[in-house]
Predict the structure.
Amino acid sequence: MAHILKWMVRFLPEFTDLAWIPRSLKHTVTEMIEAANSRFRSFNRDAADYVLRTVRGLGRTRILELGAGAAPLSRMLAARSDAEGLELVPSDRTPDRASFQELVAHYPGRVNPCFEPVDFAQDSEPDSTAVAVFLSTFHHLPEPLRVEVLKRFTSRGIPVVILEALRPDVASFFLCLTGFIGGIRLPFAMLDRPGKLRRFFWCWFVPAVPVIIVWDGVVSVLRLWNEAQWRTAHAALQDTDVELEVEEGACVQFVRFTPRRV
Ligand SMILES: C[S@@+](CC[C@H](N)C(=O)[O-])C[C@H]1O[C@@H](n2cnc3c(N)ncnc32)[C@H](O)[C@@H]1O
């Protein structure tokens, strides 16, 4: 049964990955993910603390926020005085240029986004002086590519930090169902940002966001790796001499692959 489910999941898309959904809807869904994890939960704040501890511990100053969506990590770190001196580089396969532009205007010199599409599964010149961060994003990679991508970064001396706001368990499944209420609340939760009419349109008039957020959440739970799978992936990297840390909490996972020659 588990094998059949795993096989089926390969064919279940997450809406944020579909090329045909209107940009304004995708933008609203990624804002919803940001609101869920920054405003309705403390996950993004905890993730930013973890990233900051990692980059300070390793003496790095450049953070690649991959699959950034509305760039919540760069937004949080750019606003923090204890993160001064860091360069924040959000990118995405379908870049949210409006959010990136807004961050550049607010934090000139600190946020330096890639305005062109960056596909972290393929683009092959990662910056070897940086730390690569996947915030609620690594599980979007098809399973057969995951070890390959980890290898590409770590073999160049780039530490990889993977932060997931869910776990492959029943509690996370039920948490996803509450996303429907979050989708209804979104237009009120983000009154401080441009795009108010767009949010009312996609959350209330055409209530696609509350439905998509539940669907994408459930598919994520099915795609996420458990600790044993992270350890198997680590074993596949041994020739590159990488250290693995896995921390799990209630509906969260913090995973770090650190090459020893960093
Ligand atoms: C669930 S959203 C997370 C957005 C953001 N990191 C956050 O936490 O709010 C996943 C994001 O990953 C991006 N993505 C998925 N696969 C990607 C790939 N291969 N390369 C770059 N971005 C990708 C999607 O476009 C989407 O914006």
Notes: The chain has two domains: 1-41+169-224, 42-164+226-262. Residues 16-17, 30, 33-34, 67-70, 72, 92-94, 118-121, 135-137, 140 surround S-adenosylmethionine (CB under 6 Å).
